[in-house]
Amino acid sequence: MKKVLLTFGLLAFVAIGANAQTTATPAAKVEVQNPNAATMTFESDVVDYGTIEQGADGVREFKFVNNGKEPLIISNARGSCGCTVPTWPKEPIKPGESSVIKVKYDTKRLGAINKSVTITSNAATPTKVVRIKGKIIAPQTSPVKEAVGSPVAN
Questions:
Q1: pLDDT band (50, 70, 90) for residue 12
Q2: Structural domain contains residue 103
Q3: For the sheet containing 111-121, what is the strand order?
Q4: What mean pLDDT do residues 71-76 have?
Q5: Burial classification of residue 73, based on how many CB atoms lie within 10 Å of its CB (0-12 exposed, 13-18 middle, 19 or more buried)
Q6: What pLDDT is attached to residue 84?
Q7: Which residue blocks in 24-97 are alpha helix, DSSP H?
Q8: What is the pLDDT at residue 93?
Q9: Residue 49's closest CA among 98, 107, 99?
Q10: Which of 6, 19, 72, 148 is deepest in the core (most CB within 10 A)?
């Protein structure tokens, strides 16, 4: 009898808990898009370093245009790791104007590059991700030539 009462009580508890989870949710928030909002149109979303030697210049640029009707303000740009450091314009970019976001990659590291930079702004799409890719190889060294001919006498 104790097991039956315990089972009944447990089922009642679960039923009440499940019913509490099905409460109505508030109406979905309707986002209104600003038709005049700034927009960032990039020449390319990916900058390819190609194959470069270790220690080479790691600075590249992402060129973009504000195709919106309001000034574009970039509030932040963040690399996916400490080896990728972006620099962005701090002043507003007027409609129709272009600018660049510079990205410096630490080329001391060997191997493949596949990093991202997340840009936050007041654009119609407030977050934009651009990428850098490439490969860093060890610098080429010339082999040491051995002297040809007879040994030097003392």
A1: low
A2: yes
A3: 46-53, 127-137, 111-121, 74-79
A4: 96
A5: middle
A6: 94
A7: none
A8: 96
A9: 107
A10: 72
- Rounded Cα distance between 99 and 103, Å, is 13
Residue 21 three-state SS: helix
Checking if the pLDDT of 10 tops 70, the result is no
For 131-140, what is each residue's pLDDT tens digit?
A: 999 999 998 8
Give me the domain span that covers residue 92: 40-137
Q: Count the domains in the chain.
A: 1
| Amino acid sitting at position 53 | E
Instruction: State the Cα–Cα distance between residues 42 and 102, nearest whole angstrom.
Output: 13
- Is residue 152 one of the residues assigned to a domain? no
Name the DSSP letter for residue 34: -
Q: Output phi, psi for 9, to 5 deg.
A: -65, -40
Q: Output the domain CATH number for residue 50.
A: 2.60.40.10
Residue 34 lies in a domain: no
